[in-house]
């Protein structure tokens, strides 16, 4: 009887020893495979978060660049407005001074004719400028500047008059005659301080009518001939946008 019991005990111990090993588990009861799967999910989620963060950074950087370009362009336009305003005030002051110094009674027929011609020229230009600045009658200013240019094509105010005419026509999207006015400034008045701005406007007109290659030529000319100027910076912005 004792031998039978001993034999049974030995067989049971052998069976337990030969049984499959239990899976390795951590303190929480999870298997190694579960832990690996969980770590992979955590890593994937982290990578996805980092990717989304990089995307947001790229978007923000592009927005900053766009805003910087817009700010520079607006700064240029403000500088141009202030410069134009100062020039116009100086011109009006000069016109007023000339009018005040003009003799009431001419000493000779020749001097009377010369004085009348000068007063007619300055008064005509001042009238056209006032239609823009004081009266805001832009449609009436266009024929006023055209009349001045026709009557006084070689006037010291001719370059500015052509630029004003081109700007007024450009604002009305009347691009062909606007181009002619700006071309006159560029080709006839090469020492004018309006020449660089006129070249930029010619580039913009070329863009408007779909002549991209011509626009590039105008912008490159501004950058080459008027480097480091406000007009060159605007030309570079326009060129980069093409």
TrEMBL record:
Span of domain YbgF trimerisation: 31-102
Signal peptide (residue range): 1-19
Pfam families hit by this protein: TolA_bind_tri, TPR_16, TPR_6
Keywords: Cell cycle, Cell division, Periplasm, Signal
Stated family: Belongs to the CpoB family.
Functional summary from the UniProt entry: Mediates coordination of peptidoglycan synthesis and outer membrane constriction during cell division.
Protein name: Cell division coordinator CpoB
Native source organism of the sequence: Shewanella psychropiezotolerans
Gene that this polypeptide is encoded by: ybgF
């Amino acid at each position: 009887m004792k031998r039978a019991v001993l034999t049974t005990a030995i067989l049971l111990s052998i069976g337990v020893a030969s049984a499959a090993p239990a899976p390795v588990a951590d303190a929480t009861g999870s298997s190694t495979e579960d832990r690996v799967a969980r770590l992979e999910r955590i890593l994937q989620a982290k990578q996805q978060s980092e990717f989304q963060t990089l995307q947001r950074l790229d978007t923000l950087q592009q927005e900053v660049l766009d805003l910087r370009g817009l700010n520079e362009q607006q700064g240029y336009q403000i500088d141009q407005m202030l410069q134009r305003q100062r020039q116009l005030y100086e011109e009006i002051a000069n016109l007023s001074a000339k009018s005040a110094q003009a003799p009431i009674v001419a000493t000779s027929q020749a001097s009377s004719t010369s004085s009348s011609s000068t007063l007619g020229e300055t008064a005509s230009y001042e009238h056209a400028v006032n239609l823009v600045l004081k009266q805001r009658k832009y449609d009436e200013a266009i024929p006023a500047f055209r009349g001045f240019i026709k009557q006084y094509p070689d006037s010291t105010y001719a370059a500015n008059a052509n630029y004003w005419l081109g700007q007024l026509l450009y604002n009305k999207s009347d691009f062909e005659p606007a181009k002619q006015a700006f071309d006159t400034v560029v080709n006839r008045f090469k020492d004018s301080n309006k020449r660089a701005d006129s070249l930029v406007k010619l580039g913009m007109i070329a863009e408007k009518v779909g002549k991209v290659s011509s626009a590039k030529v105008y912008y490159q000319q501004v950058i080459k001939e008027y480097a480091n100027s406000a007009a060159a910076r605007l030309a570079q912005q326009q060129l980069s946008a093409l």
